[in-house]
């Protein structure tokens, strides 16, 4: 059967098409999740979907008071001061988080579309030049497309009623003082008018483009290492790298995808059918189920995770008008009549679950890593069982497996801990000064995750290799 060769431009266009397929899939998942969360009642579903898609590759969102709002219809201080010259009340905020559910869906679609012809070409290997052209097309398309997506992620969204009435530290309940609605709604002009203040938002296009390039590089690199049906133009050291390290990486990546996909698909189907609160929960799961999995697994190997909420105090000391308004709230100096305390919660503390949560995470993580190591040991060729250390005894093959699997686990869990972190802030300003606000953060120790991941992964790799050797099925079938 003759082999049909394809040209340079066709290779490049197929790389571009793979990225476009991934972007469409990511936008569809974002729109579905937002629809389940009823986000369309707060803003444009199209713009919000574009914002989530850009955030999935590292874009950060910034927000501020909607300048297009009709200040003439606003009540309270917003109507009195008119919002001109920075004197009126204003809101600002930012969010830096990665919805890994959207990221993983895009990664799977990207690799499937990118490797389609590579899987079909069983009678010949693609040359290094052809593969480089396909990758260059994918990278260029990702850079341009996600910058366009970030540019489309602009719009305004109204603040939820719960957010406007629940921040007592900024504009607390003033019903006793003659305010009609209380909370930030009165301060920003929403009280008594039946409307809620709106915030305009946008996404940093530069970070989205850079993150898209890194995302494509990681997906294509990992796919080339773990794919079994793709014939690649590698040889020498690269072939040894793929044969020796590919099984460990493949076991970890495939198992993680299954663990993230099963609850994601099941809960999404149930939430879509049932609707209501179940639908809202399904929308949240669709976005952050892999984030929760990353926190759980890294917590199991010994990483520390912290949830912190920090009130932002007024900087009225540099602005007499702001200081005067800040003092109107009472002796504590807040506009809502009291200073909100810092709140920090460690996920391993007793109040957040304590030792039972950590022991459960440890047990589940160890079982998952042991199963991955066992699978990797079965798939590793016997010729690739020499350790990096100068030891050639009877346990050298098991030690080599422990080295490779420990390194893969450390890198994978460290990357997961870095991506699962999130932060955000919200503030209110007046007279050109900050009057107050709130900062929230979910953070994990990447260094501890890497160190403990290397240790636990190494032990799991050694145990999995021993188990495969005892059963006499070491090596590929």
Keywords:
single chain; 477 residues; alpha+beta; eight-stranded antiparallel beta sheet; globular; disordered C terminus
Low-confidence stretches: 69-76, 166-183, 327-338, 473-477
Q: What's the β-strand tally?
A: 8
Q: Which structural class best describes the helix and strand composition?
A: alpha+beta
Average residue-wise pLDDT: 77
State the strand order across the main sheet: 3-4-1-2-7-8-5-6
Which H/E pattern describes the elements? Answer: HHEHEHHHEHHHEHHHEHEHHEEH
**What amount of the residues lies in strands?**
5-15%
Proportion of residues in helical segments: 55-70%
* Count of individual helical segments: 16
Largest sheet: 8 strands, antiparallel
As a whole number of angstroms, the C-alpha radius of gyration is 27 Å
- The best one-word shape is globular
Distance N to C terminus: 29 Å
Notes on the protein architecture:
58% of the residues lie in helices and 12% in strands. The protein is an alpha+beta fold and 477 residues long. The longest helix has 38 residues. The two termini are 29 Å apart. The C terminus is likely disordered.
Structure at a glance:
With 477 residues, the protein is α+β, with helices and mostly antiparallel strands. It has 16 helices and eight strands. β7 and β8 (433-444) form a beta hairpin.
